[in-house]
Design brief:
Elements: H1 2-34, H2 37-62, H3 70-93, H4 99-104, H5 119-142, H6 149-167, E1 178-179, E2 183-184, E3 187-188, H7 192-217, H8 220-230, H9 232-237, H10 242-268, E4 270-271, H11 278-291, H12 298-314, H13 320-335, H14 343-359
Antiparallel strand pairs: 1-4, 2-3
């Protein structure tokens, strides 16, 4: 038995290592060689969405938490990075405030901007602030045993509230947001080489995030998270607090979303309330659902595929894409809960069943007619 377990672990490790090697080759060698600078930058944007999707896959696919407000944590990381880049550009030009503030008539830098002028503080805020907010929100929600549709509505309302709040704040760009970044930690964003560096940074971050989530899924915590999703009361009966298990998954998903938002800002060159509201949060969720929320790579492929389809089809069908996106979500959730990642096992199972039925030929039972034993008549003489 021990030998079988060791063989299974060795095979799993080999398969995982091979998968990561193939992904690294595709991202770091094939994509830069075959894609133009514009397409590569577009793929980098999609990779940011995939980072968010990995966290949603952990929280929703494994933990059963329908997170409709990941745009909140995505926006926190994005705006912190944008504020730092704006102040770095202003300091390089010798200005006291960023250019958009001068145009708006703001002559003094707001107090909440000042800490993020420092690069270490900005990076620390990107990593810590989304996680702290998620921990506080999760503690207040999960400790009160709020779950299901109520949690989904609450998280979606939080995303809508943040977007409305940012829209009315001229000190952080208002409706138009923050844009026109010239440099990224000293590297000029107008240089194509630096743009490729951002792509490699996003690709490397995605691989690290996927590796971390895989480790969590195959750990004791991952098994406990699935148990909480399926039988929360039994887990509580065994002495575990399901709220703490959910909080950890929710914080990890928020942590990944904050990092993705910080990478999104210099890659795209703009961040606005339209990028973090209810619609983007739902788009994140649709990508995860279509790809396969219970798998490791399903959210990644689904997020990239949906983002690519939105970019390609929205130009031809601006209003029709939204309806198509909704139909895809309904079809996947209603008829293919495992997403596209679950189609292959389904097709394979149907194929195997068909093969078994075709291979099972009827066995003809041939009964050989044997002559009846001759009865000797013994005549009594």
């Amino acid at each position: 038995m021990t030998s079988l377990v060791q063989r299974w672990r060795a095979r799993s490790w080999f398969t995982t290592s091979a998968g990561f090697a193939v992904a690294a080759i595709l991202l770091f060698a094939v994509a830069p060689a075959v894609l133009s600078d514009f397409r590569l930058n577009l793929l980098a944007k999609f990779l940011c969405f995939a980072i968010v999707a990995v966290g949603i896959g952990l929280a929703w696919g494994r933990g059963g938490m329908l997170t409709l407000g990941q745009g909140v944590f995505f926006g926190i990381g994005a705006y912190i990075m944008a504020m730092h880049l704006q102040m770095a550009d202003a300091a390089r030009l010798g200005n006291d405030v960023p250019e958009f503030m001068e145009i708006a008539g703001i002559r003094e830098l707001p107090s909440f901007w000042q800490p993020f002028a420092s690069a270490p503080v900005a990076l620390l805020g990107i990593l810590v602030l989304p996680a702290l907010i998620a921990a506080a929100l999760g503690y207040g929600v999960f400790k009160r045993r709020v779950k299901g549709a109520y949690f989904a509505i609450l998280s979606q309302a939080l995303a809508a509230a943040l977007a409305i709040l940012l829209t009315g704040q001229q000190a952080i760009g208002g409706f138009t947001g923050l844009s026109d970044f010239r440099a990224f930690f000293g590297f000029k964003l107008s240089d194509p080489v630096n743009r490729r560096m951002l792509f490699f940074l996003a690709a490397g971050t995605l691989l690290v995030v996927v590796a971390l989530v895989r480790q969590l899924m195959h750990s004791r915590y991952g098994e406990l998270l699935v148990a909480v999703r399926d039988q929360e009361e039994r887990v509580r009966f065994l002495g575990y607090d399901p709220a703490n298990v959910k909080i950890v998954a929710y914080v990890v998903a928020a942590f990944f979303a904050g990092i993705a938002g910080a990478l999104f800002t210099p890659i795209v060159g703009i961040i606005s309330p339209a990028d973090i509201g209810v619609v983007p949060s739902i788009a994140f969720l649709i990508g995860v659902a279509i790809g396969g929320r219970t798998t490791l790579l399903g959210p990644v492929l689904g997020a990239i595929g949906v983002a690519w389809a939105q970019t390609a089809l929205s130009e031809e069908f601006p209003s029709g894409w939204t309806y198509l996106q909704g139909v895809l979500f309904i079809v996947v959730v209603g008829f293919v809960p495992a997403g596209l990642a679950g189609l292959w096992p389904l097709v394979k199972g149907l194929r195997d069943n068909r093969f078994r039925r075709s291979a099972a030929t009827p066995v003809a039972v041939v009964v050989e007619a044997r002559p009846e034993p001759a009865t000797e008549k013994v005549e009594s003489r």
